[in-house]
Amino acid sequence: MDGLGTATLQTSQLSMQVRQVRSQQEMNVSGKLPAVIEIGAESFLTTTIFVKYNYETFEAANILRSITVAALPNGMLQAIYNPTPADTIFLAGRNAPSLGEEFRVRLSYQRLANKAGWRVQLIPLAPEGFDWTD
After folding, report:
1. For residue range 96-132, what is the model confidence (pLDDT) as tens digits?
2. CATH code given to domain 6-122
3. Which residues are CB-neighbours of 105 under 8 A, at least 6 positions away?
């Protein structure tokens, strides 16, 4: 199953800053979501949840094998999940700045799970069982 370990993100999908090293250069790119959204007199934390369907190709058919659910941390948790370019949950994204493409980044499910296992859940389809990871 290709791409099982990451999700590709755009800055419009996160409130965290992306701190990482790319081509031996330290990067610090801000997410475009606010950490808190004000609606009327109410304040709400922004939450980004990714659901990724993992398929296997068999005899020219795509067969759904599992579903990955990942809870991306809110920007207020920057110091825990991505405090420095070396201590990050992100990998280089699939974008080409030389072609004028928007900045993208990949969320590493393993790096995120290493910091908080409950934030990444791999849900296999029947007949496999599923237990929520704490």
Report:
1. 666 667 888 999 999 999 999 999 999 998 777 777 7
2. 3.40.600.20
3. 8, 9, 11, 18, 20, 29, 90, 91, 92, 93
